[in-house]
Amino acid sequence: MSNVPLKKKLINNNIFLVIPSWGKLLGYPTLGRYANHDVLSISQDLVIFFGGIERAVKTMRGTIYYLFGLGYYYTKFEVQTGRYITDNRPLTGLLLSDFVYDRLAKSKNITLQNDRDVVVGEDIFKIPIDLSFKSENKKTFIQGTLMRNLFIPYKDIILEFIETIRDPNKYKFDKTGHMILSAHWDFFNQILISDDMQPEIKLKYLESVAGLNGISLRVYKFLIEHFTDSELLEIRETIRKLNEIYSTVEFDPIYLYSLIDQVNIWLKIKMPNSITHQVKHTPKKTLKESILVSAEENLASFVEWPDQFRRRTKKELEDSVLIGRERLYHPKKEEKTIVKEEPKREKFEPRFIERPTVEIKTLPEIPTSNIIEILSVLKEIIKQDYDLSSIGKAFEIARNYIKSMVLHLNYLWDLSKYANIYQRAKPNLGLSYKEKLELLEKVDTWIDLSK
After folding, report:
1. Per the domain annotation, does 311 fall within a domain?
2. Same structural domain for residues 262 and 164?
3. CB 419 within 8 Å of CB 392
4. Which residues pair with 70 in a beta bridge?
5. Is 98 helix (H, G, I), strand (E, B) or coil?
6. Residue 273 carries which DSSP code?
7. For residue 168, is it within any domain?
8. Is the domain of 152 the same as that of 218?
9. Domain interval for residue 289
10. Taking a C-beta distance cutoff of 8 angstroms, is the pair 226, 63 a contact?
C-alpha cells in the first residue's frame, strides 16, 4: 500500500449513536485522574453522538473511520468511596481504528429485533434519524425497543446533552475548533483538540478527565492529512446546521423518541440534500453489523484486537488502583510520627451544592399575558426558598402561559425540563445555593431574549 492515505468520499449519514461504555469498548485502558486524585471506579462512561458526515481512510497501519457531528463524553466516577462526581466533554467527532470499529460491529445483540438498519447491542446503539422507509409495525417495534433499552435508562444524560447543545458557547468553531474522541493507534483513548481553542475554554477542557489517557492538541495532524480545505468547510457547515437544528428542536422530554421524529422533520427542511442510507439486506448472514456506511465494503472481514492494547476487565483495572494505594508507605506502630491533624471537611461535596430543608408555601399569582412579567415572578420564586415541587409547578405554569402567546422560543424546552425535574423531587427540599445562582442566571438570559 502507498504511504499516501486512500481517502474515500465524504458520506452524509444522519444517525444517533450511543456507546454505553467507552472504557469497556477499549478494554478499560485507564481509570484516569480528576482534580489531582486517582479515580477509584467509574460507574458510567457514556458516549452519545448525533452524526452527520463520515469518511473511511485507508493507511499503512489499517483503516480508520471518522464520524463528525455533535457528541458528548459523560462520566460518573468515584475519587473517594461512596462520593460520586460527574464530568463531561463536548465532542465534534469520533476517530475509530479498524479493530475498535470491528469490535463495535460485532457487539452482541441484546434484543430479539432483527433489523440491520437499527443496531441494539451490548456495546453500541445505532439508529438512523430517518425511519420513514420502515412499515408502521416495524417502526412501532423499533420505538418500543429503543425506549426500553436506550431512552429510559439514559434519559437524564441525553437531556443533559441536549442542554449542552443549547448552550451558545458550545460547539462553536470560532471558539472551540474540533474536539475528537480518538481510538487511533497513536492517540488511543484520548480527545484531540486544536491549539486554536480559546484560552479560557481550553484551560477548562484540558483538565484531567476520568476514563481517558489524556487530551492532545494534535487534532490537525489528522485533519490536514485526511481532508482537503473544502472538505473541512463542508464538515464544519454540517456541524453548524446540526447544532442549529438540535439546539432549537421542540420535543417531549418524557417521551424521548419524539426527539428522533422532530429532528428528522427539521433535517429534511434545513438539510434537504442529506441522504437516508438503508443497509443492503442480503440473504447471507454477515460477520458484522452495519454501523457506518463507509465501512460497508469491509463487512466480510474482521481485524483482531492488537496485543499492544491489552484488554482487561473493569474489576482488574479497579483492583490495580487499590493495590497501588496499599503499597504506599505506612509507618510501623513503633515509629513515632508527628501528624498535624486537619479539621474534617466534606470533600467534593461543598456546602453550596447541598439542598436545604424548607417549608411548603403557597405560590404567588403568576401573570398570564406578559412574558417579562411572568419570568420576573419566576425569578422572585427562585430567590425566596420555595420547595422544589412548587418551583417545578411554577416553571410549568410559566411555560404554559408563555407557550400560549409564543409557540417557538428557545427556552420553552428548558422550562419543561425544570418543571419535570423539580416536580419529581423529594418533599420539603429547596434549591441549593449553586442551583439558585444558575437558575437566576438562566432566567436573566431568558428575560434578555424576550425584550
Report:
1. no
2. yes
3. yes
4. 50
5. helix
6. T
7. yes
8. yes
9. 6-298
10. no
